Structures are given as C-alpha cells and as structure tokens.
Amino acid sequence: MIHADLLRNILALQEPEAALACRTEGGNPSEARIIEANRAACALLGLTREELLNRTPGEVITNFAALAEGEPVFETGSRRIEHTLCGPGRATPVEIRSHALELDGDALFVIILRDITVRRRREMKSDLDEQRFKTLYTLSRMIDRTEEEILDYALVQSVYMTDSRMGYIGFLDESESILSLRPWAVPDLGECTVRDKSRIFRIEGAGLWADAVRQRRTIITNDYARSSGRRGTPEGHVPLVRHMNVPVMEKNRIRMLVGVANKDEEYTESDAVQLSLIMEGVWHIIQRKRMKTDLVRAMREARQADRAKSQFLANMSHELRTPLNGIMGMTQLLLGTKGLTDEQKEYLTLSLESSIQLSGLLSSLLDLSHIESGGTGLNRVDFDLPGIIHAAVDPLLSQAETKGLRLRCSLDQGLPATVHGDAEKLRQILVNLVHNAVKFTENGSVTVTAHCEPIADVPDRVSLCVAVTDTGVGIPENKLESVFESFMLGEEYMTKRYSGAGLGLTISRKLAEIMDGSIDLQSRPGEGSVFTLTVPLLHRPERADACSAEEKAGLRLNILVAEDEEVNALVTSKLLRKHGHDTTVVDNGQRAIDALMRGGFDLVLMDVQMPVINGMEVTEIIRSGAAEGIDAHIPIIGLTAFAGDEDRQRFLVAGMNGVVTKPFDAEELLDAVCTAAVSARAI
Questions:
Q1: Which residue among 78, 98, 161, 662 has the highest number of C-beta atoms inside a 10 angstrom radius?
Q2: What DSSP letter does each residue of 198-211 carry, written as one string?
Q3: Which of the 8 DSSP states describes residue 609?
Q4: Alpha-carbon radius of gyration of the chain
Q5: How far is the CA of 355 from the CAs of 328, 350, 361, 487, 620, in angstroms?
Q6: How far is CA 377 from CA 100, 228, 371, 516, 537, in A?
Q7: DSSP codes, 340-396
Q8: pLDDT over 50 at 551, yes or no
Q9: What digits encode the pLDDT tens for the residues 284-306?
Q10: Within 10 A of 90 (CB to CB), how many other CB atoms are there?
Q11: Where are the beta strands (DSSP E) in 387-503?
C-alpha cells in the first residue's frame, strides 16, 4: 500500500507545476489510474481532486496515447514534450515530463505539466515582430513596383499576420466621406457571390465598418452577429464572424482604411498594433512613390516648357535676322556710294555698328536656345592646342590696343601641342572670356595663362587650365554667381555702363559643362577678376613620334583581323595586303583565340563588338595569360565605332595598345599598326 501522505507531499513539491501520480498496473499508460493530483493539476485541468482520482491520463490529457507510444511506463527522461490541452473554449499549451516512481513496491509514474502560455505568447509576439520587420523591409524595396503590387503584397501579409480569412484596403477622399476600395482578398473567391461588387462606398449611412472613420480609431468586433451597429451584408457576401478595421492617419486626416475579418479566435489590441504598423509603412511608401512620380512629371513639364521657350527664342531670332541682314546689306551698299557728307557717313557707320551688335546678340540667343534645348553635342577632333588659344586671343589685340590695354598670352612650356577634344567650343569659351575681360577693363592689362596637369589613373588624359586675369572693374562677392545667369551683367540695368545682353558667360559655363569642365571666378571690386576654365582633354602623341614613311614601307607583318562585318573585313585586309602585310580574317572572338593559339601572328586588329566573345573580353583573356600558347604581349589595336573618349579609355584599360575609330582612313590605320609594332619590338 502506497503511503498516501508521502505521495501528496511529493506532488506538492512540484508546484506551481501541475503533477499527476498514476499507477501503471502493467497496462497501457493511457489506461493507468490517477491516484493523486496536486492543486496546480486541478486548476490546469479544470477538475477537482475527487473528479481526477480513478480517471485515466487518456481521459484528461488530449491525445495522451500517442505521447506514451504504447510503453508500459511513460518515461520522458531528459526530454520535454510540448503539447496542447484542449477543452471546451480553451487550448492550453503545456510542456510535459514524466518519470517512473516506485513506492512501497508499487510501480508508478508521475506526469508533470507546465503551462507555457506566457512563453508561447512571447514567442508568437517575437515571430510576429520579425515577420513585420521582414514585411516592412520587403515593402521598402518595392518603390519601383506599381501601387497595386505594393497594396496586394501588404494585404496578403496583413491577413496572414492577423490569422484572418479575408481583408481589404481602401482610400478616403479629401472630405473623408467616400471610400474607394482597392485590393480585397478572400481565400476562396467562390465563397463571394455578390453580383454588384462595388468598390466605391459612402461613409454616411454605412454600418460597423465605417465606425473606424466616424470615431477615428481602431474598431474591433468579435461577435458580428450580435453587434447592434451592423447593417447586414449584401446577398452572397462571405458571412462575417469577427471584424477589425484600422484607420491610417496623417496630419489628423484619415488616408486609408484597412480591414480584416473572420479570425478563428478573437481579435486583440496586439492584432491592431501589427496591422497599424504595417499599413502606416505602406502609406509612407506610397506617398514617397507618388512624390517621386509627381517630381518626375514636374521635371518633364519643366523641360517641355524650357524647350518651348528655347524654340520660341530661336524662331524669333531667325525671324529678326532676316530683316536685319537686309538693313546691314543696304547700309553697307549706301556707305559705298559717292557724294555722302562726313556727317552722313558717321550716321551710317553708327547704324552699321548697331546692326552688327544686334546680330551678335541674336547669335548668342540662338546659341543659348540650342544649348538649353539639348541640341548641342561634342565634336571631338585632334587639334593644335596652342594654336586654338592664340586663335581666341589674337583677334582681340587691336581692341585692347585701342583702349590702351596690354593683352598678353603666356603658355606653359609643357603644354601639349596636339590634343583631342572639341576645339570649336574651347575657342568659343576663350573668346567670350577674353572679350569680357577687355570690355570691362579700362586701365592695366589682360593676361591669359594656360597649363596642363595629368589626370590620375587615366592614361593620356590631361586637365587643361586656362586663366583669364584682368585689372578691370571687378565684381561684388554677392554677384559672383549671378553673372553666369542669362541676361545678367553684374550691375543694375538702369545704370549699366557697358553694352551687351549678358549671355556670354552663361553660354561659356554651359559649354564648359557639356565638355565635363567648369568655370570658376575670383574677383574684387576695383581690383579685377580671374576667370579660370578647366576642361579634360586627351593628349595625343606628337607626330614626330609616329612611324616614318620608311619604317611603314619596311614593315612586313602577319596580321590577324578579327572583324565580323564582311565588308569592313574585306576593306581592312585588302588595305593591309596592299602595303605588304599578310592577313587572316576571323569573324568572332572565339575564332580569334583559336587562330592565335595556332601561332604565327605579329599583331591583332580587334573589332570591339563581335559575336560569341567581344573584343574587350578577348583582349583581357590574352593579357591575363589564360590562353595557352598565345603571347600575352602581342600588340592589339582596337577597331571600334564607339567614338567617345570614355569608350577609348575603357579599351586601353582592357589592354589594347591603341584604338582606331571607324570610319578610318588608310594612313591612320597604317600609323597605328606601325606604332604598335615598333613599340613592341622596342620592348
């Protein structure tokens, strides 16, 4: 016989955990008899001690037979089994342990149950918080998706995180009187058989779902059938059991209304918090997306307006130029007639000078409108850099001498003779800067200095710096930037002493920016100004370094021509053969590698854009030494229709010895071949 007091004390020591003592009687553990229970077990199972005694574990613990697995004694050892106790109106998560016990010769086992509801809630909250974070993170990366895609994703996550069966998202109008339903979700759309699925609803007169708008707070309805405020649902609507809707507010205005329905359990404030946090994030993302769309639209409209203004300016300039040409022509004809008095000649000369000035103004307006409409591109050529600078300065020498000014041009000895860039735009900028300096200088001098500096990590690239220094009137500090604005002269227009429309500096800065350069200004009133132009240029080797005619004539090379365009390949190979070279033509990058691996070539003409493997990739493979049997240092000249400086630099960085731009002339190609071959032999 078991000592009853001892057993009760053993079970009491397990509190606050629930404990049951069961006699095995050699049968299935689920059919054992409960012979003692502590107070915690009675409270957890909802039964008195008397009701528990002589019952079996299978009768009070849900699905106990599966837990016991048919063993004679239910022994868990170090395991802790998580389980759920189900009963009328409740589901309690528990952690179960069981240990064998022998008292007075009786074989027993003690079942210990720990209520883990609090822990489960904490874990669920943590899981929900993590899921909400993942949802908000995903939403933040959907800025480029459509609004519908964003809302659909948000609704699916909202329904999932609140364990709901359906949901909807709607937007309120400015007066908060009309709701426009956007996405709505029902797991089985077949359940909803409403004929008129309207998406526009008036708040006035609406039922429970509109209370969140009227009361401006979250409304939870956990018993829809008994709710006094319900107005019913349309015929065929999914039956409502529970419902929760949350208003999303910004600056005391309701922007969105979000609802979920038919959760298996009651909705709680925790559900409302999760839904609010997600949908507030959605609203901010949608607002950001709409602002971005509005900004893009505004920028597009501004560009269109700017183009319209520029087009109007250009049209008016052209219309004015036609009669102006007639005036200037007739004035010059009249000046050439006989019998004019000195006074008449003076008047006609002044008229002609005014016409010339007006013509210059119209030219500036045309230049400005062309630049602002985006019609100005770069025309890069090889040119004589010192020659272009002198071409901008020398025509103004007579104007400076007339005013008694010294106009000097001082070029650094290291200035490269030949560069590649837009010579005409460079000359136009310098003419404007030097002309302004002469015009606004009454006494002293105007000095033009120029030097070049290499650009780090960019082969053959230099930065040209031209400074125009004068001893003129100077510019106040608060107007240093405004002088670059259209029609500004840095002085009040009612008292200005100098003629001009104020477009020269505007055009010059815009042209410099098109060339990836800049114009900086330093000035002090009464002391003068320094305008500094900085533009990047490509340094071209001096012609003296090119191959001589004798060297080109004496070369006999075996050249691989990698060119996929049949006509270009034919022209290139015939040109090379005409000058004594042997050629082999291949039409893609892989065949170029195969041919080079067979050996015997002195140089490669590599088309950049080819099928299978392009010319840049082939060059990189060769230079890396990855292709067995190919000389990693073989001269490679790129052939390309990509004429930009940036493209040329990419090809050189990839390992090409030179680049020839299509269409090319014979001398250009032969010079490149000779230079690359001679350089390779020198190495």
A1: 98
A2: --EEESTT--GGGH
A3: S
A4: 45
A5: 6, 9, 10, 19, 61
A6: 91, 73, 9, 12, 16
A7: --HHHHHHHHHHHHHHHHHHHHHHHHHHHHHHHTT------EEEEHHHHHHHHHGGG
A8: yes
A9: 888 888 888 888 888 888 778 77
A10: 9
A11: 406-411, 418-421, 445-454, 461-470
In the structure encoding, which two tokens stand for residue 36, read together? 């003692």
Q: Tell me the residue type at 259.
A: G
Place of tokens 């106790």: 85
Q: Which two tokens stand for residue 469?
A: 């220094």
Residues 376 and 422: beta-carbon distance below 8 Å: no
As a whole-number percent, the residues of the chain with pLDDT over 90 amount to: 13
d(Cα 179, Cα 168) in Å, to the nearest integer?
Answer: 11
Q: Report how far residue 406's alpha carbon sits from residue 444's, in angstroms, rounded to the nearest whole number.
A: 7
| Whole-angstrom distance, CA of residue 523 vs CA of residue 221 | 74
Residue type at 682 in one-letter notation: A
Coil vs helix vs strand at 575: helix
Cα–Cα distance for residue pair 637/682, rounded to 1 Å: 17
For 515-529, give one letter per residue: b (16+ CB within 10 A) or e: bebebebebeeeebb
Helices 423-439 and 504-514, axial angle in degrees (round to 10): 150
CA torsion sign for 59, 63, 68, 70 is positive
Q: What is the pLDDT of residue 664?
A: 63
Distance CA 533, CA 430 (A): 8
Give the pLDDT confidence of 182-223 residue by residue, as tens digits.
766 555 444 555 555 567 888 887 777 788 888 899 988 888
Query: CA-CA distance, 67 to 65, in Å (whole number)?
Result: 5
Contacts of 619 (CB under 8 A, 6+ apart): 606, 636, 638, 651, 654, 655, 656
Strand, helix or coil for residue 51: helix
Contacts of 488 (CB under 8 A, 6+ apart): 479, 482, 502, 506
Question: Residue 614 contacts by C-beta under 8 Å, 6 or more apart in sequence?
Answer: 589, 608
Furthest CA-CA distance within the chain: 155
Q: How many CB atoms lie within 10 A of CB 417?
A: 15
| CB distance 44 to 115 below 8 Å | yes
How far apart, in whole angstroms, are the C-alpha atoms of residue 306 and residue 324? Answer: 26
Please write the tens of the pLDDT for every residue from 571-603.
788 888 888 899 999 999 999 999 999 888 999
For residue 139 the two structure tokens come to 């939403």
Q: What's residue 523's pLDDT? A: 86
Q: Rounded to whole angstroms, how far apart are CA atoms 468 and 479?
A: 18
Give me 434's structure tokens.
């030097």
Assigned token pair, 570: 């034919």
157: Cβ–Cβ under 8 A, 6 or more apart, which residues?
Answer: 131, 135, 278
